[in-house]
C-alpha cells in the first residue's frame, strides 16, 4: 500500500501561480506512473497532467501551456506548477499513482491505484 499526501493548495487571484506537491510513502516512485486529477463542485474528477516513468508528460487541453508536472524520484515526490490560474481551475486536486510503469501516462482514473485525499485550490476573479 502506498500513501500519497498533497500540499500547497491555497486561495489565489486569477493570473496567480501555485505549486502543488505530492509526497509518497513508496520506497521508490521511479517505476510508477504519476498524475494529477481535479474535481470541481458538481463535476466528475478529471485528469489534469500525467508523467511517465521516463519523464514524458501529457496535459489536459484546458491546462496546456499553463501547468507543468514534474517528479523527483530521489525524493519520491510529484509536483504540479500552476501558472496563469483561472477561476475555472478552482477544484480539489488529487495526486494519483500507478505501480505499472508507462512511458505514456494516461489521464483516466481506472489506471491509477493509489490516491491522495486531495487539496483545495481556489482561484478568484
Task: Spell out the blueprint of helices and strands.
Layout (H helix, E strand, L loop, with lengths): L3 E4 L3 E3 L4 E7 L8 E7 L6 E6 L5 E3 L7 E6 L4 E6 L8 E8 L15 E2 L3 E6 L1
Parallel strand pairs: 2-11
Antiparallel strand pairs: 1-3, 3-8, 4-5, 4-9, 5-6, 7-8, 9-10, 9-11
N-C termini distance? 40 Å
How large is the share of residues in beta strands? Answer: over 45%
Helix content bin? under 10%
Shape: globular
Question: Unreliable stretches, pLDDT < 50, 5 or more residues?
Answer: none
Write up what this structure looks like.
Strands 2, 4, 5, 6, 9, 10 and 11 form a 7-stranded mixed beta sheet that branches. Strands 1-3-8-7 form a 4-stranded antiparallel beta sheet, with no helix packed on it. By secondary structure, it is mainly beta. The chain is built from no helices and 11 strands. The radius of gyration is 13 Å and the shape is globular. Helices cover 0% and strands 46% of the residues.
